[in-house]
Amino acid sequence: MKPAYPIKLIALTIGTLLSTLCQSPAPVVGYINVAMPTGWRAVVRQLESPDANANVVLVNATPPDGALLYRYNSTTQDFFNAATYVTNVGWYPVSGNTNDPALQLPLGEGFLVWSPAAWTCTFVGEVAQGTLTNQLPPNYSLKGSIVPQGGLLQTMLGYPAHEGDVIFSGAPGAWTPYTFDPFEFFWTPSEPNIAVGQGFFVFRTIANQPWVRNFTVNRMSTPPAEPEPSPEITSYNIRDGIITLKVEKNTKRYNVQYSTDRETWINVATDQTATTWRGNVPAGPRGFWQVAQP
Length: 294
Fold this sequence. Notes:
The strands form 7 sheets. The protein has a 5-stranded antiparallel β-sheet with strand order 9-1-24-21-22, with no helix packed on it. Strands 2-8-3-6-7 form a 5-stranded antiparallel β-sheet, with no helix packed on it. The protein has a 5-stranded antiparallel β-sheet with strand order 11-17-13-14-15, with no helix packed on it. It is mainly beta. The protein is built from 2 helices and 24 strands. It has 2 domains: 29-215, no CATH class; 232-292.
């Protein structure tokens, strides 16, 4: 007679493994500050928010009155009508419709802003994790990295370079073209170096191709003392230099951790028990928060 318990044990082990592999990464929220000069700037949204509308995505930003936002339509190969920033009103499209497509800023899609004065464009939201796809259509499109990373476009950001690709980095009137040579695996004059929050134009001669990133934020190594479910951030808000996190604990205590690069984390609050945590937003171009068991 064959013993039953090894089979049950194996089944339980496989079930536990599959359950672990299928778990979604724990939420990480943060902010990105992009310096906006007087004149033109190509920008990209790299943090998830409840809505892609500019008046939600840029709710923490304070543009000067009269700033213009241009979204590019890769299907028609033309720009949507500009939306104008009106103080105490927000981004206002030509149509007057607050749901106008001209106001939609999908994750990983770039857009142009013209400003009559310098200001800081602040994005607040959750870092997208897992398998992320940014579609690259034929002809011209305005794009950016779908995750908040900077670096060499192909080498570090995983851009799928193809023969004839041209990247236009900079802004209207000052675009710098970078062309890919597939035979030499070489960019001319050099491989584009893209900053966090930077948008750029792409020209391609092939049909739709996905720009895929498999991205997970590094977490501080602090194994829990008990096998309890991890705490999670369920909502967040930044106002007047204060971040507020709503936390679903699922455990008795949790630590709040902060990072400027999503690689190295420090505890900014330990042994928290409340379902709401508030703290100061440090000065800097970007910052991220996560919660974890002590």
